[in-house]
Amino acid sequence: MFTNYKDAVEWIHSRLKFGIKPGLKRMEWMMERLGNPEKKIPIIHIAGTNGKGSTVSYLQNIFTEAGYKVGTFTSPYIEVFNERISVDGEPISDDEMVALVNEIKPLSEQLAETELNSPTEFEVITAMAFYYFGVVNPPDIIILETGLGGRFDSTNIVEPILSIITNVGFDHMAILGDTIEEIAGEKAGIIKENALVITGVSNEKALAVIQRTAEEKNVSLFELGKDIKITKSSLKEHQELFSVSIPFRNYEDLLLTMRGEHQLKNASLAVTAISYLQEENKFPITEKQLRTGLEKTSWKGRFETMSKDPLIIIDGAHNIEGVESLVDVVNRHYGDRKIHILFSALADKDFKPMIERLTAIATSMAFTTFDFPRAASAADLYDVCPMEDKAYYESWEEAVEKFVQCDDDVYIVTGSLYFISGVRRYLMK
User: Fold this and answer.
1) What is the 3-state composition of the chain as percent helix, strand, coil, each rounded to the nearest 5?
2) pLDDT at 244 over 90
3) Most buried by CB count within 10 Å: which residue of 35, 77, 270, 384?
4) Got the DSSP string for 201-227?
């Protein structure tokens, strides 16, 4: 039995040595012994290469605004580990985390004795989340984000009321596959019978896989660009203003604090999900609650302003799609300013195209590394950058201090979410 938080979380992290083991058998084994808590609460299941976190956040804020109690399961965390299991946007307490570990650890040890072997870190955390929401503190609805892929993701034992696939891009290819079709096939694994699918996928090959899977499962599919249309968009005092037409109705002049064209898409998927539930008489929500929920939404580490003078923005753009979105937002909002970028990434990411794309907006670039087993070295990142005005630092704290000057320029810290979370804590202090 654990009596303190530090030891409990260390035990969870000790499961990392079991790596990533695709398959749902271990999760099913644990859930059966816990009385299948994952079947007790309505669930919205979300997969996608990018945009999952923002879409979860839009939905959570709208439901909370309407007075519902909302459980969310997300990854990775930005400030504290407990964020992964939250209620109404608030992470569970340290004591609750300890109690959950004490509930799941004996199960994990029993499972290790079977032919299925030990559960992974993510399986343990997922089991904790299901037990918490199903037994300890049941919400009205759970918004559940996949960890990796979808088909064999440990969250994929659920029967959701609807599923959302935000987009499909090249990420985690060592696990999900080498082609866009293979990756889309993994994401499409969350599509279940009797649960509408909403998607923002625009890649034709990926979309074809999702369309085919929806057809096989005999479920309705709402596609961004076809069934869901953003009819107009503009900027309003560094905020996004847009109108969207969906199968049930039109919404004019919705306001977002989160910036970028990709956020209009994420918000449109959330609005479609809410409107569908309205049609099904499942969760009464007024238009005012929807509008306020959208406007209130922010997401830590996603184009987040940490300081206004000097202007420092952090953004967890950790793959090429994320970088494309970042470039779009900078061009939309700060196209007339000098941009300085500090970047760090994991060594197993294809960081060269990411860096090359960032040079399109950067006046200067700096590179650093951080304390994480798979972090790329500062020198390796520096070497692939084609710019002349560049630098690298072994210590990211030193990089942040030297990189930011007090002037009218824009300073952007971006790359791995693990890196961003450290920088965010440092800047908050």
Assistant:
1) 45, 20, 35
2) yes
3) 270
4) ---HHHHHHHHHHHHHHT--EEEBTTT
